[in-house]
Amino acid sequence: MKTLFTSESISQGARSGTVRSPDGLLNVTLGNPMEKGIETRGPNPELLFAGAYSACYHGALVKAAKKLGTPVQNSIVRALVSLVEDDKGGSGLAVELHAQLPDIAPDQAQRIMEEAHQTCPYSKALRGQASVALMVD
Hints:
Layout: E1 10-12, E2 18-20, E3 27-29, H1 45-67, E4 76-85, E5 91-100, H2 106-119, H3 121-126, E6 131-136
Parallel strand pairs: 5-6
Antiparallel strand pairs: 1-2, 2-3, 4-5
Helix pairs in contact: 1-2
């Protein structure tokens, strides 16, 4: 496997701490919505993951649409990422990816979404590890 590029981030303080990148482009104080009595100060890890996944999947969606002969314009991808309890008492993720593809028939939009799901690096990483639902809005 050929590495295309590598990103680095550093976490301190777990879910209520900070995440930063050595280059300074990322510097976030996290908030933990599950801590009772503590005001949420910033985004939680699931929100950061939702942003990253929606951007990555959106790129794959645009490529998939071109591949299938239906280029898209003004598309929007929305990701909902939930922290869920798994059947072993641990935790996992459940994801909903919603796409708005103006002027594309719903059945074609669904095909584009399925194709993108096969090629998106985040989708590949989650395959078999998390529930991911694809929805045309």
